[in-house]
C-alpha cells in the first residue's frame, strides 16, 4: 500500500497557535520534509516533541531534485510530513511540486489545518472578505511589478499580497500609482507576534508611511476596484491611450492600463486604437 502525504500548518508567530494534531504528526511521521531543519528543531523543542522519523530539507533550492525521492518513499508506504517555516505548505512556500507528483501517482494527500497569514490579514483588514484573491509576492523589478498590478487594476475582489519589508515602500507607491491613491488597503505586520500591527488607510497615505521604513513579516490587503458606472466610447479610449503614450508609456502598456481603468477587455481598446489609426490614414 502507498503511504500518505501530510501538509501541516505551522505557527506564523505565536507557538501557542500550533494545531493540536501537529505534535502527533511530528512524532509519528516516517519522513519529515522541512523548509528549514533548524526552524523545525526549534518547533519540536517548543512543542516538546521528539521526532522518530527521518528529517530532510525541502526548500526552493532543492524542491525539484528532492521531490522524486519523497514520492518514492510515499510509494513505499511512508507517511511523509511536509512543514514550512510558517503557515501552510504550498502557499508561497515549497509544496506544490510534491503535491502534484503525489496526486499523479494516486497517493493520498491530506492536511493538518493551521495558521495562515493570508486569511489572518484578510480578516483583520476591515475590507470585504466575501470574495478575494491571493496574488503572492509581486516581481522585484519595477517594470514587471507595474505590469502585474495593471493586470488586476480592474479586479473587483479584495487582493492579498506578501511583501518583503525592504520593498514595501516601492510596492505601495506602485499600487497607489496603478490603483489610485484613495484605494483602501491594510498593511499587516508581524501577525500574532509581540509587535503585531495593522496599518489601515488609503494607498497614498500608506506609501508615505512606509517610506520611513518598516520591519517584520508583511501581508498587504487591498480593496477591490469599484464598480464602473462610466461607459467610455471608442474615441475616449483612444484619447486616453494617446495621453499615456505622450507621457512615455509604450502602446501595449498604455492599452493594458486604459483597459484596466475602464473595466473593458484589452482587445476592445486595441481595436479602437487600430480603427482610429486607419481612419487617420484615409482622411484627406
Radius of gyration over C-alpha positions, nearest whole angstrom:
23 Å
Q: Kindly estimate the percentage of residues that lie in beta strands according to DSSP.
A: 15-25%
Q: Specify the overall morphology.
A: elongated
- Low-confidence region ranges: none
> What is the residue-averaged pLDDT?
93
- The rounded distance between the terminal residues' Cα atoms is 79 Å
The SSE order reads EHEHEHEHEHEHEHEEHEHHH
Portion of residues in helices? 40-55%
What do you see in this structure?
The chain has 284 residues and is α/β, with parallel strands linked by helices. The chain has helices at 20-28, 37-46, 63-75, 96-104, 117-125, 142-151, 168-179, 203-210, 234-246, 251-262, 266-282; strands at 4-8, 31-34, 54-57, 79-83, 108-112, 132-137, 158-163, 184-189, 197-202, 218-222. Strands 3-2-4-1-5 form a five-stranded parallel sheet, sandwiched between helices. Strands 6-7-10-8-9 form a five-stranded mixed sheet, with helices on both faces. Helix 9 packs across helix 10. The protein is elongated. The N and C termini lie far apart (79 Å). The model has no long low-confidence stretch (mean pLDDT 93).
